[in-house]
Amino acid sequence: MSNNEAIENERAKAGFFFTESIYPGVAMIQDLKNILISTHSNFQKVEVIDTVSHGKILVTDAKTQSAQVDEFIYHESLVHPPLLLSSRLATSQSLSLTANSTNGPKTVFIGGGGELATAREALKYNSIERVVMVDLDETVLEVCKKYLPEWGGEKVTSDPRLDLIIGDAFEYLMNSTETFDCIIMDISDPIEAGPGIMLYTQEFYTHAKKLLSPSGVFVTQAGVANPIHVEGVKIGSDMDTTCYGPITNTLQSVFDHVLPYSVNIPSFGSDWGFVIAFNSSKSSDIEVEDYSLLSHHEIDDMISKYITYKESDGDISQPDSLKYYDGICHRRMFSLAKSLRMAMKKDTRIMTKDNPVFMF
After folding, report:
1. Which of 79, 122, 188, 323 has CB atoms 3.0–4.6 Å from 72's, for a disulfide?
2. Which residue has the higher pLDDT, 194 or 39?
3. Domain that residue 63 falls in
4. 202-223 in b/e burial notation, b at 16+ Cβ within 10 A?
5. Number of domains in the chain
6. Distance between CA 308 and CA 311 in Å, rounded?
7. Stretch 73-82: mean pLDDT, rounded?
8. 133 and 191 housed in the same domain
9. Is 340 contained in some domain?
10. Whether pTM exceeds 0.85
11. Are 179 and 324 part of one and the same domain?
């Protein structure tokens, strides 16, 4: 074999890679098997890639949105803690309102959620009657239905309880007077060029609060949740591109009760933050304070009670897709690391229309 042939053989072994910046100074590199689609919508670049380690991944503007190996971690963590809390608040307050005989949630709003997996999780509740989902990017929805049907696909979009709207979630809610038992914001990160920044502001949260039933719960994804900061950048300064603290602070400026929590999502290369917010009467404050500390038996009992659902063919079955969330995971999710709690305590920023905070 000639030297040239040997060189070409070595080149043939070289793979292609997907490289993603996670936060300043840190990137994640994955072996890339295939690019299933690469297109542009009116708002962003949309791709579905196939990787060795994380399977199929939805990527928008070079950022991972969800991956086959762990999308269930993100979506179950986003949906089930607030929906179970809404059920618990309705029971503790003896509220009927929009709840059925089991006090389970009946109405849900989802902002974003183009992969359809957030709606998939919400529709598992036996009490759910109406899910309104408003997503800005129709291209993302169509790409996910075609290339990521495991996320939900036609089974979700054909569910008669789902009202799927292509539009601006901010505009929809700001013009809405409908009451919801849970508002779930599965939206783009608050980046400077992104369409979602207004959905993280004090003004928006103030209006969203008015759309919740008395047992209603608001939840939002809140970006990277770790205590790592770039050297030389002061926590909470104008140069700080972390948003978990500011989102939590902003919700605390509007709601009576705020519960930040996080999970590790390998395909994101980080722990990921979520924040629950809600109001409640003084008589139910003990329920509020105890929610994050419920025993794993209590959470598992609630899951069994509320998430027995009816399949499209009429059969009743226990969901087999709760691959992550259960009582033990619940306790871990609300136990933030001390270093993260200390960093968040130092960050006093509040996100407003005139003073937004942009994530890296």
Report:
1. 323
2. 39
3. 3-67
4. bebbeebbebbbbbbbbbbbbb
5. 2
6. 10
7. 97
8. yes
9. yes
10. yes
11. yes
